[in-house]
Write a structure and sequence with these properties.
single chain, Spore Coat Polysaccharide Biosynthesis Protein SpsA, Chain A, 12 strands, alpha/beta, eight-stranded mixed β-sheet, 5 helices, two-stranded antiparallel ribbon
């Protein structure tokens, strides 16, 4: 049976949002490990430093692929871990399990399908860092890329990174109650407000 580690970034491992998000991921089949945020008065910088810490950790580990989530997530449809793992074969660097895009921006339909679902790919103009899968190589390159950037928002850095490595999206056909929030995993803003503003 396939297993994958999911790193779940949170301010408080005992909070309702952390526990709920952990249960969502465990139901899919992930082995969840909490990562506590690196505290900083600047919440945006705290998020960036925390994500860089996770990329550094992944870079040092031996499994080929890892997953990173923030503690404001929910799921739109039932999905198995095996289906998610199929995206790894098409995504040597990273992919999104959920993203935010502005209205009118388009993603590219690829020639690939997984479990009968069309796969879309996106390059740039992406927001959100709440749900990604990333390889060891991807984590290493993204860590270096982020350290060379003066951009404070890590999700914008990742969007810029996708200009170099276009990213597939798991179930781009699904959209949450927030227009433009697409993918199997979404930020549930009704349940959990943003913790970085």
């Amino acid at each position: 049976m396939n297993t994958r580690i999911a790193f779940l970034l949170t301010l408080n491992t005992k909070s309702e949002r952390a526990i709920f998000s952990k249960l969502v991921l465990e139901k899919i089949g992930f082995e969840v490990q909490f990562i506590e945020c690196i505290h900083n008065e600047n919440k945006v910088l705290s998020n960036k430093l925390s994500m860089q810490n996770i990329y550094s950790l992944i870079k040092s580990l031996s499994e080929p692929y890892y997953y990173i989530f923030e503690d404001d997530i929910n799921i739109l449809e039932t999905i198995t871990l095996n289906e998610i793992i199929e995206y790894e074969k098409l995504s040597p660097i990273f992919f999104y399990l959920g993203l935010c895009e502005r209205a009118g921006e388009t993603s590219i339909l690829t020639q690939e399908k997984i479990n009968g679902h069309n796969i879309f790919c996106k390059s740039g103009n992406i927001h959100g860092l709440h749900a990604i899968g990333i390889s060891n190589k991807g984590a290493s390159e993204l860590l270096d890329f982020s350290k060379q950037s003066n951009e404070p928002y890590m999700d914008v850095i990742l969007s810029n990174f996708s200009l170099k490595y276009p990213a597939n999206i798991v179930r781009y056909d699904l959209e949450s109650y927030i227009p433009g929030h697409r993918g199997i995993i979404f930020q549930d803003r009704n349940k959990f407000p943003s913790s970085i503003g």
